Amino acid sequence: MESIRWRKPSLKPIQTKPKLAMEAAEEELLSPSARLFHEPNFNVHVIAIMGSKSRINPQVIKEKLVHTLLKHPRFSSLQVVDEKKNGEMKWVRTMVDLDKHIVVPQVDEQNLQGSPDKFVENYIQNLSKTTLDKSKPLWDLHLLNVKTSDAEAVAVFRIHHSLGDGTSLISLLLACTRQTAHPDKIPTIPGNKKMPINSSEYTTKGLWQYFAKVWSFMRLFWNTIVDVLMFMATTMFLKDTSTPIKGKPGSEFNPRRFVYRTVSLDDLKLVKNALNMTINDVALGVTQAGLSVYLNRRFGEGRKNKGVTEKNNNLPKNIRLRSTLLVNLRPSTGIQALADMMEKDTEAKWGNWIGFVLLPFKIALRDDPLDYIREAKATIDRKKNSLEAIYTFSISELALRFFGIKTSSSISHRIITNTTMCFSNLVGPQEEIGFYGHPMAYLAPSSYGQPHVSITHTNFKLLLSLFGFMFHKQTVSGKVFSLQNFTNFLDQVVLIYWVI
After folding, report:
1. Which of 130, 181, 192, 454 lies 20 to 30 angstroms, CA to CA, from 303?
2. Residue 222: left (phi > 0), alpha (psi -120 to 50), or beta?
3. Are residues 128 and 213 in the same domain?
4. Number of domains in the chain
């Protein structure tokens, strides 16, 4: 299929090309996936909140953008509807007026009433009430020279999701940064390590080796069939249990409030190493614990307190709560390739190529908090042994090809509305970095415009884990984790996109 092939940006026009060739290069059609993000019920915008350790100089930002981001075809092109081709949309290169994309509001810091963090939070929430102007390339950058509790200034980068998937967009943003210790070097992103096969069946010789391979294939086949059937059932009728964090119809049109918290990656690694698991296992287990404790309290409002033990709590039985995990199916472009593309006009792989994975959360209280992580690991291991993401992507693409944008948009919309939340994570750079000479304190990527009201992102190394707690009265590898102000903290953090 055309959408499965690599999608390359149009080449920069040169004098030796015929006029028709230049027009073809500059008027490439939007991919079906990019077109999907223009549907009224799926008008998604990506937000990147960047904290700076110094005041931001708008003029420096503008000068640097000209030589980097504006060289990317998607950030210097309009999306134009072609009425001659049944309303299809195409990319048309244009001159970019940075004054229309860089927003620098005048803020009187003396009148913020001692709450600059609240001002920034409200500013970003107000952005989520608006959409980008289609008469210009679909991105803007807001520079807030407001000193907050963890930064001297804040930049908010807003991009329409039709320009690319989250992995591509954040990789492109990181390609615009440099190491603070070595200003001529781009950041280093840890590569994906192939996990060793932890099974004795592949080391067994003889007939048992072939039996183990057949059994592994059968499990992969069975898990994939079950997951695809669950995907189709969710598309048609299977809904999550109604809970205080499940969005109501029309949630995609409501404003969002963005909250982030920073925790120590060393704490996560400590648990990971002690239990011989991965960071993802720990992050998912912590999320599951936070949701369980939060919902127990919410379901207990106005009732007699039943306690917070495994057998005595306020949670209804058999809660179905699933997260839609959006999986990037392309090999990572890499920030070096994107940096070269902007500096040397080379090509880089680009586009939206995303599959769905339905990730179930077990909502229950556990007397041993480490059980949350053990359950999360079992869930993740089960999902790793499935081709769900590839097949759900293919189903969406087939629906797009044979039934059109409306049907494909309806499928994606129903999947999200019938589940409760989204969960994702990104790996940050290994070094301290700066954005066009401004040292960065944090980077918090997120999005708005989708039907979920609650979305959890974790960005290890550079930013955030949304649940800043570990384990109460439990010792792991000799270290005691305390649960301070747990209830108040969850009120702020568990519902990252709670509708205001």
Report:
1. 454
2. alpha
3. no
4. 2
CA dist., res. 21 & res. 18, Å (int): 5
Which amino acid does the sequence have at 120?
V
**137 falls in which pLDDT band (50, 70, 90)?**
very high
Cβ-Cβ contacts under 8 Å for 371 (sequence gap 6 or more): none
The parent domain of residue 120 ranges over 32-163
Q: For the segment 307-351, what is each residue's pLDDT rounded down to a tens digit?
A: 678 888 889 988 999 988 877 776 655 666 666 656 655 555 565
Dihedral class, residue 318 (left if φ above 0, else alpha if ψ from -120 to 50, else beta) = left
Tokens of 253: 């049109």
Kindly report the length of the chain.
500
Q: Distance (Å, rounded) from C-alpha 137 to C-alpha 91?
A: 10
Burial label, 478 (beta-carbon count in 10 A; 0-12, 13-18, 19+): exposed
DSSP state at residue 31:
P
* CB-CB contact of 158 with 139 (8 Å): yes
142 is catalytic: no
Structure tokens at 341: 């593309």
Q: CB atoms < 10 A from the CB of 342, how many? A: 19
Q: Which residues pair with 474 in a beta bridge?
A: 481
Identify whether residues 284 and 363 lie together within a single domain: yes
407/335 same-domain check: yes
Return the pLDDT at 39: 83
User: Around 277, how many Cα atoms within 13 Å sit in the side-chain half-sphere?
Assistant: 26
Give a yes or no: residue 325 inside a domain: yes
Q: pLDDT band for position 51 (50/70/90)? A: very high
3-state DSSP call for residue 103?
strand
Residue 237 is assigned to a structural domain of this protein: yes
Residues in a beta bridge with 460: 427
In a domain, 11, yes or no: no
Q: What is the CATH number of the domain that holds 59?
A: 3.30.559.10
Q: Please check whether residue 189 is in contact with residue 460, taking contact to mean a CB–CB distance below 8 angstroms.
A: no
Q: 222 with 334, same domain?
A: yes
**Which CATH number do you get for residue 345?**
3.30.559
What is the dihedral angle through the alpha carbons of 143, 144, 150, 152, rounded to the nearest 10 degrees? Answer: 90
Q: Tell me if the pTM is above 0.85.
A: no
Q: Regarding beta strands 102-103 and 433-435, do their DSSP bridges make them parallel or antiparallel, or are they unpaired?
A: unpaired
Residues 149, 220 within the same domain: no
The residue from 395, 423, 451 where one domain ends is 423
Both 271 and 367 in one domain: the answer is: yes
| Rounded Cα–Cα distance for residues 209 and 215 (Å) | 10
Instruction: From 363, 395, 423, give the residue that closes a domain.
Output: 423
Q: Which residue, 469, 190, 466, is CA-closest to 323?
A: 466
- Say how far apart CA 293 and CA 290 lie, in whole Å: 5
Residue among 142, 160, 161, 438 flagged as catalytic: 161
Q: Are residues 82 and 155 in the same domain?
A: yes
Q: State how far the Cα of 500 lies from the Cα of 496, in Å rounded to an integer.
A: 11
